[in-house]
Amino acid sequence: MSAKRKRDTGPPSTGPGEKDVLVGFLDYLRDAIAAKAEGLPESQARAPGVPSGTNLLGLVRHLTYVERCWLLGHDVSDWKSTFHLTEGDTAESVLADYRATNAEANERTAAWDDLTEAGPRPVKHGRGAPSRRWTLTHMIEETARHAGHADILRELADGATGR
Predict the structure, then answer these.
(1) Cα separations (Å) of 141 from 22, 42, 53, 56?
(2) DSSP state, 89?
(3) Domains contained in the chain, CATH given
(4) What's the whole-model pTM score?
């Protein structure tokens, strides 16, 4: 395992508005997640790095479903399955799907004028959807949490660190 140390990048530059800041930080984290899965041999990107079975591509696939649910309004019936790759999944296809979902989500959020309105998450169990502000903040939190996991998995795989 060679130690590939990369200098960390600082926080993103964003526009001055609240939505600009929230989406800017979300994009920054999305890029960090994708970068952790890029450039790694397919077998390593799919390999479980911890006893739970978590792997880099599984994290990316899961975050694709998270964005589809919270930002695009898709229903997800089995969250555990979103971490598991199919035989046909490749690093290229999983990353392309994630980036396409990010782009579609950004198109939708660009049209949001009022962050106090309900977000697009499907209504479940009689509970209404939280505000768009809460939704964007939750997406930052969820993506950051898994970016931390991805940092560790990548370092375990080939020693690469940094953003």
Answers:
(1) 11, 27, 22, 18
(2) -
(3) 20-158 (1.20.120.450)
(4) 0.90
Distance, in Å, from the CA atom of 99 to the CA atom of 67, rounded to the nearest integer, reads 11
Give bridge partners of residue 152 from the DSSP assignment: none
Provide the Cα torsion 14, 100, 42, 28; round to 10°: 10
User: For the segment 27-61, what is each residue's pLDDT rounded down to a tens digit?
Assistant: 999 999 999 999 999 999 999 989 999 999 999 99
C-beta of residue 91 within 8 angstroms of C-beta of residue 57: yes
* The token pair that represents 77 in the structure block: 């019936």
**What tens digit of pLDDT does each residue of 20-34 get?**
999 999 999 999 999
CA distances from 7 to 4, 36, 138, 163 (A): 10, 14, 27, 7
Rounded Cα distance between 37 and 147, Å, is 11
